[in-house]
Design a protein that fits this description.
Length: about 350
């Protein structure tokens, strides 16, 4: 039987959403597709209260790290690193042949506006990258405050945010964040299967891309935009089946409302944190805990691998700590469609197994 996924993605997808993928295919050049795709773009803009252009690509979220490296960074980026995924973004930009400096913060701690301003003052950066929600540590960086501070002094720096494991649950309103690119993967808080990447792109980012040579093809965000402007379609063949599911899920999300969905994630995070503090400790710096995944310090030295084996018999799955944090921490994912009652249910099972 299927194990319910309380891991930080992929997360549980409602059956009615999964079923959308079984609809007969359509071509991606006729009007029928344009209607589907423009509908999705409208719904995404509505859900995220934005007029920024948004694109949905057939790839996982990592594609936007490559897009950043190939099409947005001109020469040198400041990359904020406080976990495994922000490290991956820094390395990707470097591997695209651009210079990077790393603002390194210990795992478990957040990146603050003043740390970034200090670094920006000392170097000649054209891009800033940060991870909204470090899935490896459960730390949520203050992206709104950072945007306000950085854009006031450095309006021309491209502010790029990996919101892969937050957007769709945590609140993301691009104009208020003042970001130039913010992106996510569908298998996280949007509660869809993996395979699509969603990115909001500012006018400034499109202008920047024009100035950056060798953008490739799949990673040419300007080319993707030009095709959208001409045809309201994607330049290469998209995963139409997943787009059906996204279209359907966006209707469900709009019905819940962005505020309602955000509040449900706040409630799940708060309840999980209180539960964690009763038995263990939270891993992230206080005040910077993720809304979509709670990383809990294993202060009782319990066997996390063993727990997951027992949970599997009850058809649940949580996550061990990431990398070096394995067994030292464990992670409960509460993103997408889960409710406080669902999280209470999995925690009750943990209590029984571990005799807490
Ligand atoms: C914060 C963060 N960034 C990037 C990624 C990579 O996303 P994908 O596997 O969808 O490319 C992940 C995946 O877990 C993530 O959690």
């Amino acid at each position: 039987m299927h194990k319910r996924l309380f891991i930080p993605g992929p997360t549980e997808v409602p059956a009615e959403v999964l079923e959308q993928q079984a609809k007969p295919l359509i071509g991606h050049r006729p009007k029928e597709f344009t209607e589907l795709y423009t509908g999705i773009i409208d719904k995404l803009q509505k859900f995220h209260s934005t007029e920024q252009w948004v694109t949905v690509l057939t790839a996982s979220g990592t594609i936007f790290m490559d897009i950043t490296g190939r099409a947005l960074v001109k020469e040198k980026a400041l990359c904020c690193v406080n976990g495994a995924f922000s490290k991956r973004c820094a390395e990707t930009i470097r591997d695209c042949g651009k210079e990077i400096d790393i603002l390194d913060v210990d795992w478990g701690y957040a990146i603050k506006p003043e740390m970034i301003l200090e670094k920006l003052a000392s170097g000649n950066y054209d891009t800033l990258s940060i991870c909204h929600n470090e899935t490896s540590t459960g730390v949520r960086n203050p992206i709104y405050e950072i945007g306000k501070a950085v854009k006031k002094e450095y309006p021309d720096i491209m502010y790029v945010i990996d919101s892969v494991s937050a957007m769709g649950g945590d609140k993301v309103e691009p104009e208020k964040i003042q970001c130039d690119l913010i992106y996510a993967s569908t298998q996280k808080a949007y509660a869809l299967p993996p395979g699509l990447a969603i990115g909001f792109v500012s006018e400034g980012a499109l202008k920047r891309a024009e100035e950056v040579p060798d953008r490739g093809r799949y990673t040419d965000i300007k080319g993707i935009y030009d095709y959208w402007m001409k045809k309201q379609q994607t330049p290469s063949t998209p995963n139409v089946s997943l787009l059906y599911a996204l279209d359907y899920q966006l209707d469900r999300m709009l019905k819940e409302t962005a505020e309602g969905r955000y509040q449900r994630h706040v409630d799940m995070a708060k309840w999980t944190q209180d539960w964690a503090k009763k038995h263990f400790e939270m891993f992230p710096e206080p005040g910077y805990e993720s809304l979509t995944v709670s990383t809990i310090k294993n202060t009782q030295g319990k066997n996390v691998g063993g727990l997951n084996k027992e949970l599997a018999k009850r058809y649940y799955m949580i996550s061990n700590g990431y990398g070096n944090l394995k067994e030292k921490t464990f992670r409960i994912g509460h993103m997408g469609e889960w409710t406080v009652a669902d999280v209470q249910d999995v925690c009750k099972n943990i209590e029984e197994i571990w005799e807490l």
